Amino acid sequence: MESPLAQIVASVLKLFQFCLIIWCLLSWFPNINWYDQPFKTLDKIVRPVIAPFRKIIPPIGNIDISPIVAILCLNGLAALLLPML
Q1: Which of 14, 43, 54, 85 would be a feasible disulfide site paired with 6, CB 3.0-4.6 Å?
Q2: Centroid of chain to Cα 53
Q3: pLDDT averaged over consecutive 10-residue blocks of the chain (85 residues)?
Q4: What is the pTM of this model?
Q5: SS (H, E, C) 3-56
Q6: Residue 25 is part of which domain span?
């Protein structure tokens, strides 16, 4: 049985992954104004986490794979962190 703290951490990581996927899907639509709500809040949540990955991983033929790497790292972090909790 998982501790309540482990359940909270797992839920937060899943919620962030969901936000990241939504953010990526919305980036395909050029007419989205990222300065309007709720897009502004979503961008403020996701962009600080994606920024370090974007600095390390260059786009491959105009395709940004940093969100994929971020999701994989979050899954790895969850796999390492959750058993300890």
Answers
A1: 85
A2: 11
A3: 84 94 92 91 94 91 91 92 84
A4: 0.85
A5: CHHHHHHHHHHHHHHHHHHHHHHHCCCCCCCCCCCCHHHHHHHHHHHHHHHHHH
A6: 20-55+63-84
